[in-house]
């Protein structure tokens, strides 16, 4: 049984706005055993002196797509599932090296990918998965061309992992039940238009209210929940009133809708870096003019959505939503948010709030007794310099996931 005692350095507790000195942390096996501002005694633990570094919880990304490995999603139609899984394993390893020890995949990753990580076949963060998101015909998850009638082959096309079509209450019920059967931790639905889809207006309202309610009812009775892709205030309002728990993106939210979210306990998971990266680099990877025009709309509204929700008391999570080649922009999300949130709030969103979203309070997002031993040793003070998370984790001197070192320069 591996045991480590971290001493010296500074301790980042995301529940507090200042770092603490003199805190020691004992890890036994894969759990945090003890946290104390007094000396901890252990006869078996390997003692690790942090020097002038900061010990903090591992990061959580609550909106990621580990197997959507192309900016132009249409290209996945020619990618076999085996190659997609292999590319996804490389992407997950890179995310872990950036300090993200937990990911909530909001469309694409299946139970097999999750099991591969749990069994040590793929090196990557712990995963919470949605399986295939649900979309109406012609909605944000319908990637057929106008000339196509048939769906993509489910057994051999990578694009089939991007979404599944379900129309009408009976079909939505069946699809939600099927994704839960296959191992989904949450159900993802599309309730508005999106940037990457080529046929739907950004402001379109997708799924009837009874269809949204059907997905929510199935997930709730299973002990799960629904997250919804939504941009416009009206799309968000319809989803929240129907019982959706987390709103993904939410760039075009308004004050009354944000207040409704706070009243109903709905979370917002913004993904500002996705639009910044698409504007700068999307054309290099085949992003269409139609998508770029829609991207401009949500990009301009991004920071304002954070300000509105923050003022209304909505809990704000941390997501990135970067596709394929753009995923090396991952940690830019921290610095982009600095225009509307303090460093403490931003780190809290990527730890404590996201732990709530994945329903792992006390197990993830903080270093407390009984929590999983997911931790980072940072060269610097994240509360004073969010740039410590840039450079693909170059300033992370140690990364531990589930009690095992992924990186250890100490």
Explained architecture:
This protein is of the alpha/beta class and 410 residues long. The protein has two domains: 98 residues, Urease, subunit C, domain 1; 299 residues, TIM Barrel, CATH 3.20.20.140. The strands form five sheets. A six-stranded mixed β-sheet has the order 3-2-7-17-18-19, with no helix packed on it. Helix 3 packs parallel to helix 4 and helix 7 packs antiparallel against helix 8. The longest helix is centred in the last third of the chain and has 24 residues. The relative contact order is 0.16.
Instruction: Outline the low-pLDDT stretches.
Output: none
Mean pLDDT reading: 94
Please give the count of helices. Answer: 10
User: End-to-end distance, in Å?
Assistant: 20 Å
Mind telling me the CATH superfamily name of the largest domain?
Metal-dependent hydrolases
Quickly name the level 1 CATH class of the largest domain: Alpha Beta
**Which structural class fits the helix and strand makeup?**
alpha/beta
- Helix coverage percent: 25-40%
Named CATH topology of the largest domain: TIM Barrel
Number of E strands: 19
CATH architecture identity of the largest domain? Alpha-Beta Barrel
Coarse shape? globular
Write the layout of secondary structure elements.
Elements: E1 3-7, E2 10-11, E3 20-21, E4 24-28, E5 31-36, E6 46-49, E7 54-57, E8 59-64, H1 81-97, E9 100-105, H2 111-118, E10 126-129, E11 134-135, E12 164-165, H3 168-181, E13 187-190, H4 209-222, E14 226-232, H5 233-241, E15 246-252, H6 255-264, E16 267-269, H7 272-281, H8 289-312, H9 332-337, H10 343-357, E17 375-378, E18 396-401, E19 404-408
Parallel strand pairs: 1-6, 2-7, 8-9, 9-10, 11-12, 13-14, 14-15, 15-16
Antiparallel strand pairs: 1-4, 2-3, 4-5, 7-17, 17-18, 18-19
Helix pairs in contact: 3-4, 5-6, 7-8
